[in-house]
Amino acid sequence: MTKADLVEKIAAKANLTKAAAERALNAFLASVEDSLSKEAKLTLTGFGTFAVESRNARQGRNPRTGATLTIPACKMVKFRPGKMLKDALN
């Protein structure tokens, strides 16, 4: 599903125009990004939880040359699905 497909579904389910649905989706995505950039946990009850976790630096290997390299530490977003989402998938 693309963003355009998601905008169409939101517009249909919420009885909005596509433009209004796109503005709502963009506002939601900006809010999620802002929250996660401050390393806050974002919980959408029933849907799931987004959290920022840190990965330590580690050693890796270039598969083409076999040379060892250091993969730097980084932060990444983890998602844990909620009960309602798990039940909907099963």
Structure, explained:
The protein has 90 residues and is an alpha+beta fold. The chain has three helices and five strands. It has helices at residues 3-14, 18-37, 83-89; strands at 42-44, 48-55, 58-61, 68-71, 74-81. The mean pLDDT is 94. GO terms for molecular function: DNA binding; structural constituent of chromatin.
Number of helices: 3
CATH class: Few Secondary Structures
Order of helices and strands: HHEEEEEH
How many beta strands in the DSSP annotation? 5
Give a topology summary:
Layout lengths: L2 H12 L3 H20 L4 E3 L3 E8 L2 E4 L6 E4 L2 E8 L1 H7 L1
Antiparallel strand pairs: 1-2, 2-5, 3-4
Helix pairs in contact: 1-2
Descriptive labels:
single chain; 90 residues; alpha+beta; HU Protein, Chain A; 3-stranded antiparallel β-sheet; two-stranded antiparallel sheet; 3 helices; 5 strands; DNA condensation; Hist_DNA-bd
Q: In a nutshell, what does this entry contain?
A:
This protein has 90 residues and is α+β, with helices and mostly antiparallel strands. The chain has a single domain (3-89), classed as IHF-like DNA-binding proteins (HU Protein, Chain A, Irregular), CATH 4.10.520. The protein contains three helices and five strands.
